[in-house]
Amino acid sequence: MSTSMKTLIAAGLMTVAGAATAAGVTSPLVGAWTLDVATLPMPPQVRPQRVSLEFRDVAPDRWATKVEIIDAAGQRLDSASTVVLDGSPGKATGSYFVDVVAARMPEPNVLVMQFIFEGIPRSTRVYSVSADGAVLTETETYFLKDGTPKMRVARFKRSAP
After folding, report:
1. What is the Cα 118 distance to its own chain's centre?
2. pTM score of the predicted model
């Protein structure tokens, strides 16, 4: 699996708590999402077979995320985390390549996350939900090994409320 694919999939692996949820506003991010793998900017043979995310409010100041990935070879990877959305680092568990996240939710429909693995920053991702609540857009920024900045966009469809 390529580094950019690993970074892409890490999106669902992390957790955040939102200022929006603390203020009593339900975020449209809450629910289950499935990656539209056909839209990924990579050859079909290296795309994951499936990526699913679940975002949940678990307390007024805690946000949980659960991710399951079936990679191109059929291998299952997963991650889960629960963190406070104040930008402080939180732990992620599972078999995917991320162990620390930090996040903020500046608006109920926008989530900004940073991903770390083994002490090395991997990517920053911005998630935004469409006005109708049906599409989650993930904009990921990261650096190639030579230091070149890279940006990628992926779209998830709501799979359950």
Report:
1. 18
2. 0.81
